[in-house]
Amino acid sequence: MVVNRRQDVRKRFGYYMPVVDSNSNETVGYLSDISPRGFKIDSPTALAVYQDFSFRIDLSPELSDKPYMLFDARSKWCKKDFLDAVSYVVGFQVTKISAHDEEIFNQILEKYSVPERTW
After folding, report:
1. What is the pLDDT confidence band of residue 117, given thresholds at 50, 70 and 90?
2. How many separate helices (H) and strands (E) can be counted in the chain?
3. More confident residue, 113 or 105
4. SS3 per residue for 90-119
5. C-beta of residue 104 within 8 angstroms of C-beta of residue 112
6. Which of 36, 17, 55 is nearest to 102 (CA)?
7. pLDDT at 19 over 90
8. What was the pLDDT predicted at 108?
9. Three-class SS of residue 20?
């Protein structure tokens, strides 16, 4: 039996938004779902579990008065994408974010996400 420990409703992400490692400036992956305390990305490479990352998401003027937001997150799990054999799906928990960037994160959540389907 699979136990779901998630406390927030997960929403699919309907916008192609890159998530960039703020230290290396390399794209780590693309948002595929989002919740108030975490997110999932599609990544071309496997990422270590329980690793801390500093991320940047570039923003459009319709979302914010600044060009990007910064936050820290910890990878919680990583697995092969069952639809795309050369990609990985990685789940993250947001661990540190400024109050202003958290507002932007929540705007992104509301603007670009759609409820996840339950079959």
Report:
1. low
2. 1, 8
3. 105
4. EEEEEEEECHHHHHHHHHHHHHHEEECCCC
5. no
6. 36
7. yes
8. 83
9. strand
Structure tokens given for 58: 């570039």
Domains (range + CATH), the chain: 15-114 (2.40.10.220)
Are 54 and 21 in contact by the 8 Å Cβ rule? The answer is yes
Of residues 6, 110, 19, the one with CA closest to residue 73: 19
Q: What is the pLDDT of residue 16?
A: 74
Mean pLDDT of 49-55: 97
What is d(CA 54, CA 78) in angstroms, rounded to the nearest whole number?
A: 17
Give the separation between CA 110 and CA 97, rounded to whole angstroms.
18
CA distance 114 to 11: 5
Per-residue model confidence as pLDDT tens digits over 63-83 = 888 999 999 999 999 999 988
CA-to-CA separations, 111 to 35, 59, 88, 93, in angstroms, rounded: 12, 13, 25, 20
